[in-house]
Write a structure and sequence with these properties.
The protein has about 190 residues and is an alpha+beta fold. It has helices at about 5-15, 20-35, 55-65, 110, 120-130, 130-135, 180-185; strands spanning about 50, 75, 85-90, 95-100, 135-140, 155-160, 165, 170-175, 175-180. The chain has 7 helices and 9 strands, in the order H-H-E-H-E-E-E-H-H-H-E-E-E-E-E-H. A 5-stranded mixed β-sheet has the order 2-1-3-4-5.
Length: about 190
């Protein structure tokens, strides 16, 4: 695997900004997840699916390191609001969930130079802090349905109300109708006339 500094530069480029504490956590988390699954170069091997649990800087860093993307169906977003993610090797079915420890923030000054601004101190500390102080690791099992795996759409159907196409078993059956989630549960958007 490439070095921490190389991966941080790649993450910063993808994120379109400087390196922040969340990106350092994300790069370290992705490196650790890949190492625990014996995946040396995730961007070249098509065997990794990553579930990110937050939509912050960390998620961009994880995508940069792993090469996993929403459009490739290898990056899955689960809206838990937690600084955590799960790495799944789809060849071996081995999986780990890695959570950033809240206590790491209180340990920053043990690893950072005094006099630094808080964000810079966190970046410096998170680069060198031991994995077991920075992260909590869980061995997990993840059941990935066939319709959630990378590849061509598993299925296609049409919503009985809005007549929009629905891919990959995302339809809802209600009162004998096949509905998209927007029609069944309410959409996040409102059409303007």
């Amino acid at each position: 695997m490439r070095s921490l500094d190389e991966l941080l530069m790649e993450a910063a480029t993808m994120h379109r900004g400087g390196v922040c504490p969340g990106q350092v956590l994300g790069v370290r988390m992705a490196m650790l997840g890949c190492r625990l699954l014996d995946i040396d170069e995730p961007t070249r091997e098509n065997r990794l699916i990553v579930y990110v649990e937050i939509d912050r800087c960390m998620a961009d860093a994880i995508a940069a390191v792993t090469g996993c993307r929403l459009g490739k169906r290898t990056l899955k977003y689960i809206d838990y609001g937690k600084c955590a993610c799960s790495f799944v090797d789809i060849l071996t079915t081995c999986a780990v969930r890695i959570l950033a420890r809240d206590t790491a923030r209180s340990q920053v000054w043990r690893y950072a130079s005094s006099g630094l601004e808080k964000n810079l101190a966190q970046c410096e500390a998170y680069k060198v802090m031991p994995d077991d102080e920075l992260f909590y690791i869980q061995k997990i099992g993840v059941n990935i349905p066939d319709y959630d795996l990378p590849g061509e759409p598993f299925s296609r159907t049409v919503c009985n109300l809005c007549h929009e196409e629905i891919n990959d078993m995302r339809e809802v059956r209600r009162n004998g109708q096949l509905l998209c989630r927007a029609c069944a549960q309410g959409a996040y958007y409102q059409e303007l006339k």
